[in-house]
Amino acid sequence: MTRQTGGRQGQPLPVCDLRSLSAMPQPVGLLRLKLIGDDQRSTRRNGTMLPWQTCTIGSGLMLHASLELTPDITAMRSEFAALDASLSAEHRTCFGGDGSWTAISLMDRSAPGRSTDRGGSPTPTLNTMPSVRTFLEGFDCTIVACHISRQAPGGTLKWHYDNQALHLTEARLLLPIQVPPEARTYIGHEIVAYPEGVVWTGDFSFPHMVENPSSHQRIVLLIDILSNDWIRGRAPTALSENAHRRAALSGAAQNAWLEWPGRQAAYT
């Protein structure tokens, strides 16, 4: 990977200045997990904050939120259990550095070179999840891809970033189907853990990671869409505001991650 640029005239975005950030007020409740209905935020993992996590402290940016969407989570759990028991290995794929994630595709991305406004192609497996099909049919936006992801017990999806957020061209929605309470996602300086049945999204242009330290698997429906006013209208306005500030800070956070001395060792 290369250093990110996005400033004026192609100048590199600055790496976060930890000295200036150290003077900023810290969020309340540093060591508490952020849950729905809980205003406290956790900002540290094992007592240590990494350089790119500091870029969002004091920024005032909302990094994630639940969406006003109502899936039939009971039906989805039941249908997934039947699918998981019957689907052969060749219809599952693995990704992630430690091989602990598997995916079952319900909608594949269109072939490369096609127009970006073209939606994904349903796979035969989608027919085994009618509750998901019904849920997606209610979307008034282009669905680019959809798959079920599984994180194994003890699995970790290491720090990375994606060009996905409500203020960008594409966004990723997440619907927890089966999630142990210990599983969590780190976005910037925040730790989030949304309960089963709650659709949520985040600004994934900031470095983020996912871990499941429990003894149970984590099952999440991932839906990639083209952002539009319909989906933004189902999230708090603050989650898609301040696009220029988000670009500057996420670029700085990406640079901080790319230039982290321990990154190469951690990913080999």
Tell me what the structure shows.
The protein has helices at residues 18-21, 73-86, 130-137, 229-232, 243-258, 263-266; strands spanning 64-66, 93-95, 101-108, 121-122, 143-151, 156-160, 170-178, 184-187, 190-192, 200-202, 208-211, 218-226. 19% of the residues lie in helices and 23% in strands. The strands form 2 sheets. Strands 1, 2, 3, 4, 5, 7, 10 and 12 form an 8-stranded antiparallel β-sheet that branches. Strand 8 and strand 9 (190-192) form a beta hairpin. The chain has 6 helices and 12 strands. Residues 1-44 have low confidence and may be disordered. With 268 residues, the chain is of the alpha+beta class. It has a domain at 66-108 and 118-239: B-lactam Antibiotic, Isopenicillin N Synthase, Chain (Jelly Rolls), CATH 2.60.120.330. The longest helix has 16 residues, at 243-258.
Low-pLDDT regions: 1-44
CATH H-level superfamily title of one domain: B-lactam Antibiotic, Isopenicillin N Synthase, Chain
Global structural class: alpha+beta
Rg is 19 Å
Estimated helix fraction: 10-25%
What is the chain-wise order of helices and strands?
A: HEHEEEHEEEEEEEEHHH
Rounded average pLDDT = 81
- Tell me the CATH topology of one domain: Jelly Rolls
CATH class of one domain: Mainly Beta
Number of strands: 12
Envelope shape:
globular
Tell me which CATH architecture of one domain applies here. Answer: Sandwich
Q: In angstroms, what separates the terminal alpha carbons?
A: 14 Å
Helical segment tally? Answer: 6
**Quaternary arrangement of the chains shown?**
single chain
Largest sheet: 8 strands, antiparallel
Strand content: 15-25%
